[in-house]
Amino acid sequence: MGPPISDSFDVHDIPNAGRGVVAKQDLPARTVLLDSERPYAHVIFRQYRKEVCAHCFDYDRGRTLPVRDSNTGKVFCSQSCQVNWTDDQGLPGIQAWQQLHSFTQSRSRFFKDIDSIPPSTSRPNRIVVDGAWAKADHARLHTQNANRKSKSSQRQAIDPDILGLLLSAIIFYHNHRQEWDGEVLALAMDSEPYRSQEDLDQHCASYLQLATILPSDLMPSCTSQVCRTIVEAGSHNAFGIRAGGEDGEEYMGYAVYPSASYFNHSCAPNLVKRREGRTWRFMAGRDVRKGEQLCITYLGGDEKDLELDERRRRLRDAWGFECMCERCKEEQGAQGVS
User: Fold this and answer.
1) Which of 6, 5, 9, 1 has its CA nearest to residue 264?
2) Going by DSSP bridges, is the β-strand pair 41-44/238-242 parallel, antiparallel, or unpaired?
3) PROSITE patterns in the record, alphabetically (predicted)?
4) Which position among 178, 188, 252, 326 has the lowest Cβ density within 10 Å, counted as fewest Cβ atoms?
């Protein structure tokens, strides 16, 4: 459990970059290094949910997919994907998606897309984050009836994408506790993952809303710790789900893949990654020498055409670090910047 084990690479501490993946031997171009596991949590954004298969993430150029489950609101590209998804979720999971679909259908006029709203407050620090989640736990503890929404929650705006992400994590935790403890908890966590106070409040509210509608079998797994963990793990470890390959224009959602989360970024990556259904394949993009760090790009291919300052700005905004890969250091040196 924890970091992936391979004959081709090791996971090491990298100076100023956390943990990273290093080649144990020379690797010819196109060597397959890793096929990831299924996602441990994911969300398909609301505007794509009629167009993206809930199981394999297939996307047919915006067409509504042929198989629809009206009880859960999920769509599938085939009957086999529907069967596989149903098996993955288990009965409590299916019941939970049914409850969430019914809830969001009744509350559609209260939908609020937090990510589309410019933040009016700064990013909350760890003390504020801890306080907000403690307050949420206190509110849950004192709820008179866990199966009835309070008047305040009836009026409160909801973000169905946050609800979906948290529920997918709760179901995975319920069904695969050992994998969660061994792999999700081994990831580097971002203790300040919320872009604004509004974002933090919406996550806490989503947790409380789920605690009022989920089936009883899932209630022990619906904890603030599970919800916090997937947000803190996903902040710096999630992979975008795009149509048409890694650099596809349609950004349809994102998912957390623990084994794939140890590859660091480079603006001149020596690995290429390709989504194959709901998993990822990582291959050597060129010949790699023993001892080289194995890196992917976090910029989806855009790094090829971007200047140094723009690459660094995007990485700071999305991932919270100042890139010091070899390409960036070389270009910085050429500009005479110390």
Assistant:
1) 9
2) unpaired
3) SET
4) 178
Distance CA 186, CA 35 (A): 19
- CB-based contacts of 337, cutoff 8 Å, min separation 6: none
Q: How far is CA 310 from CA 158, 164, 302, in A?
A: 34, 32, 10
Q: Which residues fall within 8 angstroms of residue 329, CB to CB, at 6 or more apart?
A: none
Taking only the tens place, the pLDDT of each residue in 164-177 is 999 999 999 999 99
- CA dist., res. 179 & res. 51, Å (int): 30
pTM of the model: 0.91
Residue 152: the pLDDT is: 45
CB 266 within 8 A of CB 17: no
Model confidence at 154, pLDDT cuts 50, 70, 90, reads very low
- CB contact burial 281-298 (16+ within 10 A = b; e otherwise): ebbbbeebeeebbbbbbb
Domains detected in the chain = 9-37+257-336 (2.170.270.10), 90-106+123-144+154-238 (no CATH)
CA torsion sign for 43, 48, 50, 56 is negative
Please say if the pLDDT value at position 150 is more than 50: no
CA atoms within 13 A on the CB side of 180: 18
In this prediction, residue 146 carries a pLDDT of 47
Answer whether 46's CB lies under 8 Å from 253's CB.
no
| Separation between Cα atoms, residue 47 and residue 262, nearest integer Å | 30
Dump the DSSP string for 160-214.
Answer: HHHHHHHHHHHHHHHH-HHHIIIIITTS---S---SSHHHHHHHHHHHHHHHHHS
Dist. CA 296–CA 260, nearest whole Å:
10
Q: What is the dihedral of CA 145, 151, 152, 155, to 10 degrees?
A: 130
**CA-based nearest residue to 258, from 277, 239, 274, 282:** 239
At residue 65, does pLDDT exceed 60? yes
* Crossing angle (nearest 10°) for helices 326-334 and 308-319: 140
Q: Are 193 and 232 in contact (CB under 8 A)?
A: yes
Q: Over 90: is that where the pLDDT of 318 sits?
A: no
